Structure formats: C-alpha cells, structure tokens
Amino acid sequence: MTELKNDRFLRALLKQPVDRTPIWMMRQAGRYLPEYRASRANAGSFMDLCMNHEFACEVTLQPLDRYPGLDAAILFSDILTIPDAMNLGLYFETGEGPKFKKIVRTEADVAALPVVNTASDLSYVTKAVSTIRQELNGRVPLIGFSGSPWTLATYMVEGGSSKDFRHVKAMMYNQPEVMHELLNKLALSVIDYLNAQIQAGAQAVQIFDTWGGVLSHAAYQEFSLKYMQKIVDGLIREHEGRKVPVILFTKGAGQWLEMMADTGCDALGLDWTTDIGAARRRVGDQVTLQGNMDPNVLYAQPERIREEVASILASYGEGTGHVFNLGHGIHQFVDPEHAKAFIEAVVELSPAYHK
User: Fold this and answer.
1) Which of 2, 69, 195, 355 matches a 20 to 30 Å C-alpha distance to 130?
2) 325 cis-preceded (ω within 30 degrees of 0)
3) What is the three-class DSSP state of 236?
4) In this structure, are residues 232 and 149 in contact, taking their beta carbons and an 8 Å threshold?
5) Phi-psi sector, 271: left (phi>0), alpha (psi -120 to 50), beta
6) For the chain, how long is the longest CA-to-CA vector?
C-alpha cells in the first residue's frame, strides 16, 4: 500500500485538522480541457473512453497534471454504467445526451432487470480504478462514485434526459410498488458497484443524486433518501487501514440537509442555492460540507472568481469540515485558465481559516 503524500481531502471529510481547505471539481476531467478532447478523439467515442482502462486513467490524471492545487482525483466514468450493465443499451447522441435502446416502463420491464454483478458486468470500471490508483502512486486520494437509485431510475424510465420527468413520476405515483422494486434492484447494484470500487482502490466514494431535487418533500424521503440510506448502510467503511468516507450529493436538496446527515454519511455535497454558512450552522457538527460555488462563476474574470472564493470561505468560517468544490459539474465551455484561477484562489486564501 503506497502511502498518501496528500491526504488533506480525506482528513477534511473526517473533520480532522488540515492546513488549508482541500479542493476538487465535479467533472474535473472533462470537455473544457483540450487534452481531454484529444484523448476522446483518440478513443473514438465517449463509451470507448470509459471502457478502456488506459484511456480512463489518462483523462483522470489530466486535471492533476494541469492543476497541482487539486487534492483529489475522481474516477473517469459515467453514472449510467449500471443501467448499461442491466442490458438497456446506453448510447450517446451528439447534442442530446445519453439515451437507452430499451426503456423501463412496466412491471414486466422491472422484473426482467438483473441486479448488477460488478465483477462480471462492470470489470472495466474496477480495472480503471486499480490502474488509476497505481498511476497516482499516493499523489492524492482517488474518489469512486455512482449515481443514486432515483437518478438512475429517471434515465431508465424516461429513456434519457428529461425536463418534466413525466414517465418516472407517473410510475412513482401510479405504481409505487413497481418503482420500489426498481429502486431496490438499483440500490443493491450500487452497493456492489461501490464496494468493488473500494476494493479496487477508491479511497472515498460519492453518490450523485442529480435529480432528487425534483421530488416533493415526502417523495424525496420515500423514493430517494430511503435508498441512499440503504447504500450507506451496505458500504465498506474501512479499507487498507483507513476509513472510506461517503459523500451524498443531492442537487436542490438544501431543505433536506438534516435528513441526509442522519444517514450516517461523512459529508454532504451542496449546490450553489444553499448558503454554506447556514448549512454549517444546521449540520456542520455532524458532517463535512462539500461545495458550493456556482459553476457559472467560472465564466467571470479571475478577479471576480477570487472574490467568490473569498466569500464562500468567509461564509463557512474557521476550522475543518469544508471541502471546496463547485455546486455542480464544471461546464464544457469554461476557459481552463479560469479553473486555474479558481483553484489557486482556494489554495492561497484558505490557510487563514485553518490556523
């Protein structure tokens, strides 16, 4: 086991003292980087990039090579690998995002779905994790991830991205027992998937609940949070002599932070609609908070980016328990130099809050 040279991110997730606020970016290996676009062109397609462990490793490391201030790497993959492994036929159309050849709309459709066995169905992901971990050589920790059951279900039932979620919500309200069967299969699959990533070398994991925020208060508890709780309860929480922190991120969930913290996770991701200082007053003694700058701030000039970083640091205040991040993934049209200004501002301004 290679010793970590920089464990700032893991320490902050466990609310241990750090010398400065750690930083990483959701979607940090992505289309805004010219080197990523070159790798994707060489790979042939997005899924070819994901399914080739050498390409996945190459693009995972690209932002770390460009931005030495980053404190974590995140596995390059896609949240829809699990539905793809359920034989739904994931494909991508330019300008339209992900789509599935098979759509899940009926009780029979749900009954036909297998629970994913990562070792046999998604071995390319665990191969990527072990390859990346080896290449990192202790440089920074590696984050594994999965989509949440509710978020995965939205894509499977809608057949791709959606603006109104009419099919998945119709199933939820008209056939709740069918929806629960789907979500349970997905939760079992996610548990297996994330545990396999941990065993392959992931040192922290994040559950992306991108679409939990479209639910009502009651529906969120029943159809999203319940299954994230099941996952948290089923995860390996210590590996290689270290705790494996778990981060929950529901976009649009500022009103549910207390319930999310009660799952037993180690950290909550915040989007930009929630003030991080207010969130800390509500749940900060219980969990670390990750976030939460509006990704669109990166379209501003570097001096304005720096002001926003300073504002968020001041809002959180002194002490550990903050991982700086964007409130969602970095956009493809962001100037890489603006991302550099963002990271450097956190590196330069945050030590004052950790004396």
Assistant:
1) 69
2) no
3) coil
4) no
5) beta
6) 59
- Any catalytic annotation for residue 78? yes
pLDDT at 93 over 80: no
Residue with tokens 């070398």: 201
What residues contact 285, with CB distance under 8 A and at least 6 apart? none
Residue 339: CB atoms within 10 A of its CB come to 22
**Is there a catalytic annotation at residue 133?**
no
pLDDT averaged over the chain? 96
Contact present, 63 and 29 (Cβ < 8 Å)? yes
Exactly one of 32, 36, 67, 155 is catalytic; which is it?
Answer: 155
Query: What number of residues does the chain have?
Result: 355
Annotated catalytic residue 40? yes
- Compute the half-sphere exposure of residue 166: CA atoms within 13 Å on the CB side of its CA: 2
- Residue-wise pLDDT for 1-36, tens only, equals 678 999 999 999 999 999 999 999 999 999 999 999
Annotated active-site residue in 78, 121, 192, 271: 78
Q: Is 322 helix (H, G, I), strand (E, B) or coil?
A: strand
Active-site choice (37, 40, 282, 304): 40
Q: CB of 194 within 8 A of CB of 208? A: no
Report the candidate in 257, 252, 311 with the shortest Cα–Cα distance to residue 288: 257
pLDDT bracket for residue 305 (50, 70, 90): very high
pLDDT at residue 285 tops 70? yes
8-353 is classed CATH 3.20.20.210: yes
Q: Give the other-Cβ count within 10 Å of 254's Cβ.
A: 19
* Amino acid identity, position 176: P
End-to-end Cα separation, the chain, in angstroms: 31
Q: What share of the chain is helix, strand, coil (3-state, %, to 5)?
A: 55, 10, 35
CA dist., res. 254 & res. 245, Å (int): 21
Distance CA(259)–CA(152), nearest Å, equals 21
Please check whether residue 54 is in contact with residue 131, taking contact to mean a CB–CB distance below 8 angstroms.
yes
